[in-house]
Design a protein that fits this description.
The chain is mainly alpha-helical. The protein has a single domain, classed as Ferritin, core subunit, four-helix bundle (Ferritin, Up-down Bundle). It has four helices and no strands. It starts with a helix and ends with a helix.
Length: 139
């Protein structure tokens, strides 16, 4: 049986994935300027991947006996491309920290399936952060 802490963590992860799915999709629509065509595709591709994460996490949470949330985290839209990308990088870094905690909770609960799910999602989130840093010229 999954702990309340793990179930709560999964619901927070779902809310986060729902929020950034909407955020990235709106950014895809709103991106303007000479550099926007390539970045628009990144926003769209990332939104789709985040939506798939939300679905996978919700399926796992439901299997474990929880009820998946439908309420997203706050959605940040607007501003220029740089502002959008910085907000997105912050969101990815928050997810990375959250998902490392969920992995630890899954290990403590003896739940290798949830651990493996979040290790895969963590890898995707790190790739998103890397892509946003690359576009921003941070690395």
């Amino acid at each position: 049986m999954a702990s309340k802490k793990l179930l709560d963590g999964l619901n927070k992860a779902i809310a986060r994935e729902l929020g950034v799915t909407i955020q990235y999709m709106w950014q895809h629509v709103m991106a303007m300027g000479m550099e926007s065509p390539a970045v628009r595709d990144v926003f769209e591709d990332t939104a789709i991947e985040e939506m798939k994460h939300a679905e996978s996490i919700a399926e796992r949470l439901y299997y474990l006996g929880g009820t998946p949330t439908t309420a997203p985290t706050p959605i940040l839209v607007g501003g220029d491309l740089k502002k959008m990308l910085k907000a997105d990088l912050d969101a990815e870094n928050e997810a990375i920290a959250m998902y490392k905690g969920i992995i630890k909770d899954a290990i403590a609960d003896g739940d290798p399936v949830t651990r493996l799910l979040f290790e895969k999602i963590l890898s995707d989130e790190e790739a998103h952060a890397d892509e946003f840093m690359t576009i921003l010229g941070i690395k």
